[in-house]
Amino acid sequence: MRFMRLSRVAAIGLLFSLALAACVPANAPRSPAELAAAQSAEALSRQGQFDQAAQAWLALAAQSRGHADSYRLLAAEAWREEGQLDRAAPVLDTIKRQRLSGDEPLRFDLLLAELALGRHDAATALRLTTQPNVVAPPALQLRLLEWRARAMAASGDRWGAARTRVQMDGQLSGFDHTQNRQQILELLNQVGVDSLKQRAAAMQRGDRMLPWVNEALSQLGVAVAQPPPDLQQPVGTLLPGADANVREGYKVPAQVALLLPNDGNYAAASTAIREGFFAAYLDAGRNHAPRPSVRVYDSQGTADGAVKAYQQAVSDGARLVVGPLTRGEVAAVFSQAQLPVPVLALNHPDDKQLPATDASEFGLLPETEGAQAADHMVERGLRQVYVLVSTDDFAQRAAGAFKAELAARGGQLAGMITLPPGVTSYANIITGLKLPTAPAASAPAASGTAAPAENGVVNDAGIFISMRPAQARVLLPQLRIAQVNLPVFATSHVYEGSDDVAANRDLDGVEFCDAPWLFDAQPGLPNRDGVAARLPAARGGAARLFAFGMDAWNLVPYLDWLRAHPGSYVPGASGQLAADQFGRVRRVLIWAQFQNGLARPLGGSLQMDDVPSNAPPATTEPSPAGSSSGGTFQPAAD
Fold first, then answer.
1. In sequence order, what DSSP letters do the residues of 269-309 get, joined into one string?
2. Other Cβ atoms within 10 Å of 434 Cβ, number
3. What value, to the nearest 5°, has the Cα angle with vertex 182 and ends 177 and 185?
4. For the chain, how are helix, strand and coil distributed in percent, rounded to 5?
5. Which of 92, 536, 549, 561 sits in a 20 to 30 Å window from 587, CA-based?
6. CA 267 to chain centre
7. Signal sequence span per UniProt (predicted)?
8. Residue 73 in contact with residue 108, Cβ under 8 Å?
9. Distance between CA 376 and CA 360 in Å, rounded?
10. pLDDT band at residue 239, thresholds of 50, 70 and 90?
């Protein structure tokens, strides 16, 4: 087990502040010579000369009658900072705890706890760090929690140690923060899958430990429920009494780097994302908001290429890096020993590790769609669900998340099948699933309400599918022929991104979740038809990547705000965007339905404060300077 040690600089600062406090008269006055000697010892500590400082404090203790124990304590703390706490043990034995005052008794106990753990005496360390009615001043809270967590772990209480480290999470930064998070997950992993599942089932939503338990279970290979983010307040609210252009939470760095692969298998995706990014960037100029310069780098679609592009961007003065794109690229950038510039990665790494402290992750995850489909169906009263999915990776991942969320919401998986590729007849599969049947005339057309069973009794069954349009167009008519008229819900993969009335009539009634921009359902964004008329990358299935690129820019000014203000969200093109406590940006999608061969949003458009529903579309296209590798895009004067 690795243990976090607060940074040496922070420790020196703490020791210095404690030494200053020691110079304030407590129970006896100090002579000018004693004060001068104390200041000299403080200076040695501040300079990192801890051994010399310890000797100076001991010399003071020998000369002072009223403050001898305080000086001995400072000597012991100096040796601790030197990494020689064992040398302090004899000095600690001479200190009378009752003569200490202020925060000195707690500091004394913490040194004894550290010594006890070094001697494998976990019971003593636990007693010293869990004493009742002890109020730690802010300067000592982290240190107390750190040693309490260590004592609990050494005593075999891994759950208690993890809970204690979660208490520390919001107070740490940089390497200490990253290391503490790793230790939380290591401790939870040792608790075991069964115990974690039981604890998670007993927790209420909002429990601070629940996200950590779910994260640990996920790393252990268990599909966990993914309840949608709690969306409370959109970002960008106009500040009352401020300049008309000042919006809450809006903050942009001076220079942004966009890392995308230019060639190879990801060139087409990169083009759509890059053009979406700059379309939103240019559209932001309508509000006369400050915008940074943007430079695009070729990440080459490889781990080495992504790391080199990141390092070059940092060398060129970037203050925020957006990208790279592939899971392998993201993992490589995150695996660097240090991230000197914050990152908004456009994917999630393939190693399931938490993002670094200064990193955020944003991706179009099929798991998100599967989980939200389960929520949507349960909210419609459909708790008995049949799942039919393709062999594609996205479909399998969506199905896994769907099952986990359905179970968490009290639903039941009535049956599941993976449809083999290349098959045109699903009659035997439909029969084998034993789907409820009803005459077509009496069945609702995927209205989202419960469907009638054979005997006319209304049941609560529905069907979830995740597959591409061609396969769905083969499956749906065969379900109707078999008189299976249950409501059908799907992931976005069932929609090609453009209307094909003749082909999509076979999908009539199917509801699916998708990006709001595809249906102009999010006010305040550039009109999709207007953009698509000029940019091919905004058409068809590529439109989702275009919307994703738009949101890559839309997130830039609000990343810090989202992480610091739970419940806040960006009304984005690919969904409502909220950041969780781990720095992962999560999407809430809208629902649409095929009606007479046309895909139409359900429930009208999404609303956003301060943005008129008739906001004008963007009238400019991404500049060539913004889409060339290594080019720099400077905002025009507003």
1. HHHHHHHHHHHHHHHGGGGT----EEEEEE-TTSHHHHHHH
2. 10
3. 130
4. 50, 10, 40
5. 536
6. 27
7. 1-21
8. yes
9. 27
10. low
As a whole number of angstroms, the distance between CA 61 and CA 72 comes to 6
Maximum pairwise Cα distance, the chain: 101
Cβ atoms of 368 and 586 closer than 8 Å: yes
Region at 76 (left for phi over 0; alpha for psi -120 to 50; beta for the rest): alpha
Instruction: Tokens for 635, please give them.
Output: 């905002």
Please state, in angstroms and rounded to a whole number, the distance separating the CA atoms of residues 278 and 276.
6
Cβ 538 vs Cβ 283: under 8 Å: no
| 3-state SS class at 388 | strand
Comparing C-alpha atoms, which of 393, 384, 527, 410 is closest to residue 462?
A: 384
Rounded-to-integer distance, Cα 622 and Cα 171, Å: 41
Q: Checking phi first, is residue 264 left (phi over 0); if not, alpha (psi -120 to 50) or beta?
A: left
365-383 pLDDT per residue, tens: 999 999 999 999 999 999 9
**Cβ proximity of 366 and 466 under 8 Å:** yes
pLDDT in tens, 533-574: 999 999 999 999 999 999 999 999 999 999 889 899 999 999
Q: Report in angstroms the alpha-carbon separations of 174 from 276, 315, 330.
A: 32, 20, 19
Q: Who's near 614: CB < 8 A, 6+ residues apart?
A: none
Alpha helices, DSSP H, located in 65-129:
68-81, 85-93, 104-118, 122-129
Extract the tokens encoding 309: 């592009």
**What amino acid is encoded at 553 in this protein?**
W
Residue 152 tokens, joined: 């609990």
Question: To 5 degrees, how large is the angle CA 370–CA 375–CA 377?
Answer: 95
State the DSSP H helix or E strand holding residue 587, giving kind and residue range, or none if neither.
strand 584-588
Instruction: Tell me whether residue 345 is exposed, middle or buried, using C-beta atoms within 10 angstroms of its C-beta: 0 to 12, 13 to 18, 19 or more.
Output: buried
Going by the DSSP 8-state scheme, the letter that residue 617 receives in this structure is P
- C-beta neighbour count of 204 within 10 angstroms: 6
**Strand 384-389 relative to strand 343-345: parallel, antiparallel, unpaired?**
unpaired
CA of 495: how far to CAs of 170, 293, 346, 489, 597, in Å?
Answer: 41, 36, 23, 12, 11
Residue 137 contacts by C-beta under 8 Å, 6 or more apart in sequence? 103
The span from the CA of 286 to the CA of 611, in Å, is 12
Whether pTM exceeds 0.90? no
Angle between helices 104-118 and 68-81 (to 10 degrees): 40
